[in-house]
Amino acid sequence: MLIPDGRIMKQRIIYENVIKVPPNGLVLPDGTTEVVSSNIKDRIRHVLIPEQCIRKRVSALARQVCRDYAEAKGLDLVVILKGALVFASDLGREIYRHNGPEVRYHLIRSHAYGRQIKEAGETEREVKIESMPGDITANDVLLLEDIVDQGFTLSKIKQRLIEQGVSSLRICTLLNKTLDRPSAEAKRLRTGLILDYVGFEIPDKWIAGYGIDAGEDLRYLPFIVAVQEDYYLNKS
Ligand code: IMP
Ligand code: MG
After folding, report:
1. Among 32, 84, 210, 221, which one is least packed by beta carbons within 10 Å?
2. The pTM is what?
3. How wide is the angle at C-alpha 206 spanned by C-alphas 202 and 90, nearest 5°?
4. What average pLDDT does range 59-64 have in this prediction?
């Protein structure tokens, strides 16, 4: 049902499928969204994905993982820090709740942007990887990422895991950005990346929350917001 200002009321979201997030963000079934504390209002534009929507979608992703790994004895979750920290901890517990395989956590630290937010028109980026996991080659590996943007980070880590000789590798990302103007390099990288599980398709905006930072800020938010870019650009 549409109300005069165009907001969608009582929208029904089917959590089993990847969810395409509209530019103004998802609203809850009663048309409301999160209440945002006044001290962060100047840093954000609006809420993009409310906590309840994240929870339901993470649970649905866990069900998909449990179905696909029904025969597996265990599952090695390789978590790309810091951004995927919160997602990975929730997903692991949801996999347990849905009687899935026993998971083990391996943490990788990758640095893509440093403390800055992305430069416009960037065509390549150095991705530094610390502490690749040790002996996981005989196991089923699920690589967990917070957000795929240009594809640099996952392409590099996936390549490293393949070089290590992992026998079974799938990729799960909470968010996948639909790029407005992808560079030739981003197109190439993203074509080579098969994303086995995707939580939400999001518009090409700067986002933070639920583990994802804006210049190390806002990781603690239980929901995901579109960031007020000017605030951070002026700060740096
Ligand atoms: P990619 O390597 O270009 O795909 O970028 C992915 C990495 O950059 C992710 O692991 C994030 O840590 C970070 N990133 C991408 N987009 C955003 C964003 O909108 N906000 C915060 N971090 C982001
Ligand atoms: Mg990340």
Report:
1. 32
2. 0.91
3. 60
4. 98
